[in-house]
Amino acid sequence: MKNDHATKPAVFIGEGAIRTRVSQLARKISTDYADADELLLVGVLRGCYIFLSDLSRLLTIKRRIDFIAVTTYEQTITMPGAVRLLMDVRTDIAGKHVLIVDDILDTGKTLQYLLQTFQARNPASLKTCVLLRKSERLIEDVQIDYLGFDIPDVWVVGYGLDYADQNRALPYIGMVKTEED
Ligand code: IMP
Ligand code: MG
């Protein structure tokens, strides 16, 4: 049986660096939303689960948590990598301050789709918080309001992120080789 520990990915961003950055983000978000009655954090499953859990516990403002799940369609000529909503939020977001929390921005298609979908529901405000961004790969021009780290075009795992559903629970962000390498 294959297991995560047999081939441990090389450390790319260590636990200490993640902790420091997540606290900084939490402090900034808490300051920015200090006057809002409540902040609704919407995590994009599944990659966000550890980041959102750490971030939400460090916030000093009133907040609520909800989740969405998305998937990307198979690439076709008519629909190149279109995004589909698998699970919607339970909350009615109209009039609410919404912060979408995602693990990583690659092409930006997922977040762009979510911003469009949520904007149409008339939130009081809509912002984005992303732990990692592969700026070399960005196709869509999406606005990130809170960013953890800019990284090069490598495949990262751990701290919620996976490769073929492996290594999500690593405490650090590691780098793996993929078939394309
Ligand atoms: P985008 O729509 O291309 O921005 O897709 C971003 C999504 O692809 C992320 O939310 C991840 O689920 C996945 N993804 C992209 N790059 C990586 C990576 O290096 N590690 C793990 N997941 C990734
Ligand atoms: Mg994701």
Can you offer a commentary on this structure?
The protein has 3 helices and 9 strands; from the N terminus they run βαβαβββαββββ. The chain has a single domain (10-176), classed as Rossmann fold, CATH 3.40.50.2020. The strands form 2 sheets. The protein has a 6-stranded mixed beta sheet, with helices on both faces. By secondary structure, it is α/β, with parallel strands linked by helices. The radius of gyration is 16 Å and the shape is globular. The site of inosinic acid (IMP) has 14 residues, from strand 5, helix 3 and strand 8.
CATH topology: Rossmann fold
Tally the helices: 3
- Percent helix, as a range, is 10-25%
Count of separate structural domains:
1
Q: Ligands in the structure? A: inosinic acid, magnesium ion
Overall structural class, as computed from helix and strand content, comes to alpha/beta
**Proportion of β residues?**
25-35%
- CATH architecture annotation name: 3-Layer(aba) Sandwich
Radius of gyration: 16 Å
Major sheet description: 6 strands, mixed
Arithmetic mean pLDDT: 92
Top CATH class: Alpha Beta
Distance between the termini: 24 Å
Layout of helices and strands:
Blueprint (H helix, E strand, L loop, with lengths): L9 E4 L1 H18 L6 E7 L3 H10 L4 E10 L10 E5 L9 E9 L3 H11 L5 E10 L11 E6 L3 E3 L15 E4 L5
Parallel strand pairs: 2-3, 2-5, 5-6, 6-7
Antiparallel strand pairs: 1-9, 3-4, 8-9
Helix pairs in contact: 1-2
The structure holds inosinic acid and magnesium ion.
Inosinic acid binds next to strand 5, helix 3 and strand 8.
